[in-house]
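We were asked to recover a plausible sequence for a given structure. The inputs and outputs are reproduced exactly as logged, with field labels preserved.

PROBLEM: sequence recovery
POSITIONS: 272
GIVEN STRUCTURE:
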């Protein structure tokens, strides 16, 4: 079964928030065992300016009792409602599999010193950091690589590289990381073409590429698009490389099996 490391429960421009049924249909259609989701968009619980704690609480409630959903903690670094101690506590007490950072939204570069206590919290918890990279500073891949070299104990996963047209820049830092052996750097497939992923595997190996579809970016069309992508990718890669990309690498960085989400509380008896 596959692991998709990049999903959302909130809205994106022009696309409504996916329902639980939408996400369940996607994972069933594509053969996904676990879908990592964040509430980066913070929809449905106060709108796009929802407090960090409220957004992450809403995510936990959404994932509670749903075996295929795995929560990632959303960090709003640089805001008064965000604190590394809150992240550390959440990682210790709740089933968060890692944390998501959006440098383009926060304006905080991944290699900024303000990031250090957040990354230290992840390192102590043994959890990965996910960065939504972009073609504009401060979200470019190079600062992610710098931060990853400072924290070699943390897997750093770059998402959105293909969506935001900087895949080749991300590939270049992947090459440097492989040559210098100083970081655990991973690249999520996003909306890269099967040819791009195949070329990347040929350049840096399959060991640091992970499947991440940005679910459900394409709404009702997301599952058929990803099915086609995976079918074409399987035809281009060896069985071993394909298995690493769609499952094996994610299992390693997430230290599977993951902690199970707490079950939903039983409904109170009527009249009780």
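RECOVERED SEQUENCE:
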């Amino acid at each position: 079964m596959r692991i998709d490391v990049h999903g959302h429960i909130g809205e994106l421009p022009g696309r409504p928030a996916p329902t639980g049924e939408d996400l369940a249909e996607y994972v069933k259609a594509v053969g996904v065992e676990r879908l990592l989701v964040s509430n980066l968009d913070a929809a449905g619980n106060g709108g796009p300016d929802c407090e960090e704690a409220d957004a992450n609480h809403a995510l936990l409630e959404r994932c509670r009792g749903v075996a295929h959903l795995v929560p990632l903690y959303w960090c709003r670094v640089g805001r008064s409602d965000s604190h590394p101690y809150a992240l550390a506590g959440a990682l210790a007490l709740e089933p968060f599999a890692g944390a998501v950072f959006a440098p383009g939204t926060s304006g905080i570069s991944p290699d900024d010193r303000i990031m250090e206590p957040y990354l230290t919290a992840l390192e102590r918890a043994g959890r990965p950091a996910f960065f939504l990279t972009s073609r504009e500073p401060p979200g470019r891949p190079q600062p992610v690589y710098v931060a990853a070299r400072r924290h070699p104990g943390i897997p750093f996963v770059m998402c959105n590289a293909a969506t935001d047209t900087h895949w080749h820049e991300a590939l270049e830092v992947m090459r440097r990381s492989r040559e210098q052996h100083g970081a655990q750097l991973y690249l999520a497939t996003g909306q890269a073409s099967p040819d791009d992923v195949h070329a990347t595997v040929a350049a840096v190996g399959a060991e640091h590429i992970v499947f991440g579809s940005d679910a459900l970016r394409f709404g009702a069309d997301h599952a058929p698009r990803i099915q086609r992508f995976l079918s074409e990718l399987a035809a281009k890669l060896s069985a071993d490389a394909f298995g690493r990309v769609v499952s094996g690498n994610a299992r390693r960085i997430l230290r599977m099996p993951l902690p199970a989400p707490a079950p939903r509380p039983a409904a109170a008896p009527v009249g009780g």
